[in-house]
Amino acid sequence: MSTTIRVGWRASVGLTGDVLAALPVPLALPLLIALYYGESPLPFLAAIAVSLALGAAFRSVQDPEQNLGPREAFLAVAMIWFLVAAVGAIPFTVAGVGTVAHPVNAMFEAMSGLTTTGATVLRDFSLHSRSIMMWRQVIQWLGGLGILILATAVLSELGVGGAQLMETESQTEDVNKLTPKISQTAQLIWGIYFGLTGLAVVVYFLLGLAVDPQMGLYNAVAHAFTSVATAGFSPEPLSVGAFHPLIQWAVVPFMVIGSTSFVLIYFAINGEPMRLLKNEEFHFYLGAMATLATIVAVGLFLDPNTTFGAEGTVRHAVFNVVSIVTTTGYASTDYVQWAPAAKHMLFMGMFIGGMVGSTTCSIKSLRWLVAMKSFKRNLFTAVHPEAVRPVRISGKTVDEDAIRDIYAYLLLSLVIFFLLAIVIVVDAERADARVDEFEALGAAATTFLNIGPAFGDAGPYGTFATFPMTTRAVMIVLMWVGRIEIVPVLVLLTKTFWTS
Amino acid sequence: MHVVVIGAGEVGTSIASSLASDHEVVVVDVDPERAEQLKYELDVLTIAGDGTTSDIQTAAEVGRADMVIACTDNDQTNLVACGTAKTLGDGFTIARVKSTDFLQTWNRSEGAFGVDFMVCTDLQTAENIVRVIGLPAAIDVDPFAGGLVQMAEFEVDEESPVAGQTVLEADRYESLTFVGLFRDGEMTIPRGDTGIEAGDRAVVVGSPESVQGFATDVAPETTPGRADEIVVVGGSEIGYQTARLLEEIDFEPRLIERDADRARWLAENLPNTVVMEHDATDTEFLAREHVDEADVVVTALRSDEKNLLISVLAKRLGVDRVIAVVDSPDYVTVFEEIGIDIAINPRTVTAEEITRFTYESVAENIAVLENDQAEVLELELTDGCGLVGRPISEIVAETDARFVIGAITRDHEIVTPRGDTVLRPGDHVILLVETDSVSAITSMA
Predict the structure, then answer these.
(1) Where is each RCK N-terminal domain found (chain B) (predicted)?
(2) Which residues are registered as beta bridge partners of A184?
(3) What is the pLDDT of residues A357-374, one digit of tens each?
(4) Residue A158 Cα distances to A12, A67, A151, A161, angstroms
(5) Is B125-218 in CATH node 1.20.1080.10?
(6) Any idea where the domains of chain B sit in the sequence?
C-alpha cells in the first residue's frame, strides 16, 4: 500500500521561496544603517545571501499546475513564519556579540521579534550595534500585521489564493473584502499600517525635539516600528520608560490604534466612523482596558511602596495595561516591583488581546465577547429550552459553527498555556534554576500569547536568558504556534492532512 | 371605467364582483372552466387564456383599459402581466404580490415592473393584525406613504390623561401632529391652545410608533402596553411580518415555529422577538411557557385546521384575545362563531385593499372623515407645484384653504412639519383638508 501525499506542497514551497527572496528588501534598512554608522555590514549581507539562495532553491520546485487551496495555505503559512524567523536570526549569530550570538538565542530573538512578542534574551543592550538593534525593530514591523497580508499585497498574482492565506493566517471566518480584488484590499490595509507608522515617526520625533533629546530620529523610527505593530522591542534597556512622560503618553494611542480592526479604521477614514464607534468588539476592548487601568491605578495609589505622584500613577497604570492588553509589551516602569494585586491585573490582561483584524495577538476581544454572549444565551435557553436565540455581535448574528470553533480555540489556548507553564517549572527544576509558579505562568502566557515581558526575571527590564536553553527552545515553537493561531501548525501534525 | 382583472381566484372574483355593478369589467383566467363558470356568477366578460400574453390582453382590450388588476396566486405572473399591459396602453396597473422582496424593490423605484400600485398580501394582512392588536381603541386607522405614516382617529376616554389638556400639552411625541378635533360632530382644526375634552374625537398623523404611544395616552385601558404578552404562533410570512411590525412599535413578541431552520432564520431576522422552536399544539409546552397568561395570541400557521385547533386551545387556556389567520374565506364566520375574537382572511384583506384603491382617486391616497367634513390626502409634490420651495407658514398665510400638514416623508424618512419647514419636490405630504378646500389644495399641488 502506498500512501500518496495529497497536499500540493510544491505550491506552498514555491510561495515560501517567493517570500524569502523578497527579504533582502527589509534587510536593506539595517544594512544602510550599518554603513551610515560605520558598523560591520557582514551580518546583513550574510542574511541577504542566505535568503536569496533559499528563495531561489524553493522557487525552483514551484509547480504552476498546483493551486493554493486550504491545505497548501496551512503549510505555506507555517513554513513562511518559521523560515522568515530563521533567516532573521542569521544577523544575530553572524554579529556574534552577547547572549544572542548562540543559535538558539538568536532564533528566540528573531521569532520573538517576528511574532511581535517582544520577549528578549539580550542582557546588556549597550554591547550591540545600532544596526543590529534596528534589525530587531524591523522584524517586528514586518510581523506586525502579518507577513502574508504583505505578501498578498505585493504578489497580486496570488489572486484568490491570497484570501485563503489571509484567512489562514488570522484564523478568521472570512476576510472582509473591501475591494473586489483581494490584493487591493491587502494594499489598502498595508497602506493604513504604513501611514500610521509614518505618523508615529513624526509625532515621536517632534516630541523628542520638544522635550527629550534622547528621542532622536533613530529612536523615533525604532519605536514607531514596534508601537503600531503592538510588538514591544525597544533599543532602550528601560523600554519606553527611558523617555519623557509626554512621549510615554504619545505612545498609548498608537498601541490602541494598532490593536483596532484595520478594516474598521479604513471605514472610519472613509467617512463611516460609526461602523467603528458602534462596534461591540471595540467597546469590549476599550472597556476591558479602562477597567483594568482603573483597578491598577487605585491599587498603586493605595500601595505605600509606590510613589509615582498622581500623574505618574495614572500614566503607569494606563501605559502598562494598554501595553499588555494590546499585546505590545513595552513598559514605562519596572512593574515587577508592584504589589501582587496590580501585577495580577496585568497577568489577567494578557489573555484579553485587541480586536480581530489588527496587529494584536493573544486570544482577542471578539472571541471573549462571543463566548460570553453565547454563555448568556445558554443561561436563557436553560430556562426556555425551546427558545432559538442567535448570538449577535453589533447586530449581526454569529454562525453557530463559528461559536463552536471559538470555544474550541479558547480551550485549546488555555490548555497549551497551562502545559507550557508546567514545562517551564519542571525544566527549571531539572536545570537547577528556580522559577516560581507565578513567574512560570507569566512567562508561559507572555510567550504563547505573544505579549513580551512577564514577571520576575523575565520582567520588562529582565531577560529570558535566565531560563534554561531547552525552555527557550519550547518557547520558540510556541511563539510560532501562538502567532499563527494554533490551527495551521497542529493540522500539519495530523495524518489526514497529508494523505486523505 | 374599463377594468381588466387578471386571475379569477378568490381575490379576483371578489374584486370583480365589487366593481361589476358600476364598471365595465373583463376577467381573464388561465382555466377555461373557471372562466366559463364566472360568466354566470357575475355580470362580466370572461376570457380564458394566459393573461401575461399580449394576444390575450389585446382580446381583453387592455389598450383602452383605465385599470389593470393582476391578482393571480403567482407573483411573477402578476408582475409580467402588468409589464405587458404597459406595452399595450397606459391604464393604471395594480399587482398583488406575496413576496415582500418585490414590494421593497417597487418601493425603491415606483413604477418598477410596470406596476403603478402594489399590494402585498402577507404584509397587508400583518398590518391589519398589528392594527387590531395595537390600536383596539382607534375608530379608524389608515396607512400612508407605504406604511411610514399612520392616520388614526380616537375617541378620548374619561380616564385619559389627555382629557382636559390643551393640544400643546398632549402632543408629547416628536413626529405626531394633531390634525383635527371633532366635538359633537363639528370639526375644528386644532391650535396649540385648543382644549381637549373627554368624548372628543382626535385625529392624529405620525409615525406608527408615535401613534401607538398616543393611543396609550388616550385610551390607557384598552391599548396594550409594552409589558403585554403577545404570542404569534406560526412563522409563516404573515407570522414573520406580524412580529416584525410589532417590534417596530416597541413590542417584544414571542413567536413559536416548529421547523428548526425556519426558526433559526426568524430568530436571526427578529432581534427583539423570542423565537421558540416547538410544536404549538403541545399543551404541556404552552403551559410551561405560560402562553395561557398571554394578552394576545395570533395564530398564523399555514393550515386553517391547525389555526382553529390552537385558537380554541388558547381560548380554553384563558387567553384574552385570539386573532386567527384563516386562509379559506368560508371559515371566517365559523371561527368567529366558535368564539375566536377576530378571524382575518388574507385574500379578503387584499381584495378590500384593491377595491378601496379603485374607488378612490387614482393619484392620491385619501381617507374621508366624519360624514365627509374633511379628507386626509397624500400628495406627491412635483417640481413646478405651488407648494414647493417655501416654508409652510408662508403657504398657510397666503391661502384661504383650511388645512393642516400632518407629516412629510422625504426619501422614505419622516420629516416632522414645522412652520419653517420648506417643502421640496419629491416629498410626500400627508395633510388634512376641510372638504370645501380640497380643490384649492389639489390645484396648488
Answers:
(1) 1-119, 227-344
(2) none
(3) 888 889 999 999 999 999
(4) 12, 10, 9, 5
(5) no
(6) 2-115, 125-218, 230-351, 359-444
| Residues in A touching B243 (Cβ below 8 Å) | none
Q: Do B266 and A384 touch (CB under 8 A)?
A: no
Q: Do B264 and A386 touch (CB under 8 A)?
A: no
Query: What is the secondary structure of A383-446 as a DSSP string?
Result: HSTTEE--EEETTEEEPHHHHHHHHHHHHHHHHHHHHHHHHHHHHHHHTT----HHHHHHHHHH
Q: Does domain B359-444 have CATH number 3.30.70.1450?
A: yes
Flag if A388 and B276 touch (Cβ within 8 Å).
yes
Grid cell locating A311: 500623574
Fold match flag (B230-351 vs B359-444): no
User: Chain A closest CA to B215's CA: distance in Å?
Assistant: 30
CA distance B14 to B7: 11
Specify the amino acid at residue A471.
Answer: T
Residue carrying C-alpha cell 476592548: A285
Contacts of B274 in chain A (CB under 8 A): 384, 387, 389
Superfamily of domain B230-351 in the CATH hierarchy: NAD(P)-binding Rossmann-like Domain (3.40.50.720)
In this prediction, residues B42-68 reach a mean pLDDT of 91
Nearest by Cα to B131 from B118, B142, B117:
B142
d(CA B361, CA B96): 19
pTM of the predicted structure, to 2 decimals: 0.82
Hey, CA dihedral for B12, B15, B20, B23, is it positive or negative? negative
Kindly list the distances between the CA atom of residue A308 and the CA atoms of A247, A300, A341, B397, in Å, as whole numbers in the listed order: 17, 9, 17, 71
Taking the Cβ of residue B384 and every Cβ of chain A, the question of whether any pair is shorter than 8 Å is answered with no
- State the complex-level ipTM: 0.76
**Residue B298, min C-alpha distance to chain A (Å):** 18
What residues in chain A have per-residue pLDDT under 50? 1, 173-174
**Cβ-defined contact of B278 to A392 (cutoff 8 Å):** no
Q: Whose grid coordinates read 410551561?
A: B288
> Distance (Å, rounded) from C-alpha B149 to C-alpha B406?
9
- Between CA B314 and CA B54 the distance in angstroms is 50
Q: How far is CA A304 from the centre of its chain?
A: 35
Distance CA B299, CA B255 (A): 10
Determine the Cα–Cα distance for residues B240 and B234; give it in Å rounded to an integer. 8
Contacts of B330 (CB under 8 A, 6+ apart): none
Rounded to a whole number, what is the distance in angstroms from the first to the last CA of chain A? Answer: 14
The helix (run of H) or strand (run of E) holding residue B428 is strand B428-434
Give chain A's contact residues with B (Cβ, < 8 Å): 384, 386-390, 392, 395, 397
CATH 3.40.50.880 for domain B2-115, yes or no, is no
Q: What is the pLDDT of residues A303-362, one digit of tens each?
A: 888 888 889 999 999 999 999 999 999 999 999 999 999 999 999 999 999 998 888 889
* Smallest CA–CA distance from A384 into chain B, residue: B289
pLDDT tens digits, residue range A130-159? Answer: 999 999 999 999 998 887 777 776 665 555
- How many CB atoms lie under 10 A from the CB of residue A270? 11
Instruction: List, for residues B184-207, the tens digit of each pLDDT value.
Output: 878 888 877 888 888 888 888 888
DSSP secondary structure of B251-299 = ---EEEES-HHHHHHHHHH-TTSEEEES-TT-HHHHHHTTGGG-SEEEE
Residue B23 has pLDDT above 90, yes or no: no
Would the CA dihedral through B240, B246, B247, B249 be positive or negative?
positive
How confident is the model at residue A168, as a pLDDT?
A: 64
Q: What are phi and psi of B93, to 5 degrees?
A: -105, 135
Domain limits, chain A: 373-499
Instruction: Please give the Cα distance from B196 to B202 (Å, whole number).
Output: 8
First to last CA, chain B: 25
